[in-house]
Automatic annotation (TrEMBL):
PANTHER family: SUA5, THREONYLCARBAMOYL-AMP SYNTHASE. InterPro entries: DHBP_synth_RibB-like_a/b_dom (IPR017945), Sua5-like_dom (IPR006070), TC-AMP_synthase_SUA5 (IPR050156). It comes from Nitrospira defluvii. Residues 13-197 form the YrdC-like domain. Belongs to the SUA5 family. This is L-threonylcarbamoyladenylate synthase. It catalyses: L-threonine + hydrogencarbonate + ATP = L-threonylcarbamoyladenylate + diphosphate + H2O. Its EC number is 2.7.7.87. Keywords: ATP-binding, Cytoplasm, Nucleotide-binding, Nucleotidyltransferase, Transferase, tRNA processing. It is an enzyme of class 2 (transferase).
Length: 215
């Protein structure tokens, strides 16, 4: 079974060395996000990405989102920040909005699913931001097997995935509810998935700058 460590503001620094060790060994870490628990590997680690896909049973045509701890961590991930993306970042980040950008060259097709784009979210959780500032960007795909429900607490993650992942950071029960909202901001803004942030709020923010949100 996976090792479980507490993951709070007080315990984050103590957990960091083990997180770094697991990631260095191409490991998979489960951690809480602002919605559900996610599965974290380094987005530049091809071996770890293959493990992640295997753990989830994820189809190859589904891209994998990446979590960042600060906007400057976008640099190795994206080829460009479009004006629409910049507006969404300013209005809704940090928060439960995954923005799809043109992907930087050289990213694994396991991340992009060959789409040429990459979904990124700046998490609003202070403890997760703190971790990511030390580790760099990490994947944040939901901690569940594909086609099954996302998991909202460490115990459920251990029961379902503990035999095939390395570390669970137990931050208590995640809020659950809707997943993050996903918007493709590469060209004309397009709603890819409804979620925590209502589409009407995103549409209104975009319309103030002359953009129309399609779906």
């Amino acid at each position: 079974m996976a090792l479980v460590l507490p993951f709070t503001d007080a315990s984050c620094d103590a957990a960091l060395p083990e997180v770094q060790r697991v990631l260095a060994r191409h490991g998979v870490v489960a951690l809480p996000t602002e919605t559900y628990y996610g599965l974290a590997v380094r987005p530049t680690d091809e071996a770890a990405l293959r493990r992640l896909v295997e753990v989830k049973g994820r189809p190859p045509d589904k891209p994998i989102l990446v979590l960042i701890g600060a906007p400057e961590q976008l640099v190795p991930l994206v080829d460009a920040i479009t004006p629409a993306a910049s507006l969404l970042m300013e209005r809704f980040w940090p928060g439960p909005l995954t923005i799809v950008f043109p992907a930087a060259s050289g990213l694994s097709p396991l991340l992009t699913a060959g789409s040429g784009t990459i979904g990124v979210r700046w998490s609003p959780l202070p403890v997760l931001q703190r971790l990511l500032t030390h580790t760099g960007p990490l994947t944040g795909t939901s901690a569940n097997r594909s086609s099954e429900s996302p998991l909202a607490d460490a115990g459920a993650v251990q029961k379902v995935l503990g035999s095939c992942i390395d570390l669970i950071l137990d931050g208590g029960r995640a809020p659950g509810g809707s997943a993050s909202t996903v918007v493709d901001a590469c060209e004309c803004p397009r709603l890819l998935r409804a979620g925590v942030i209502a589409a009407d709020h995103i549409r209104a923010a975009l319309e103030q700058s002359g953009y129309i949100l399609s779906s």
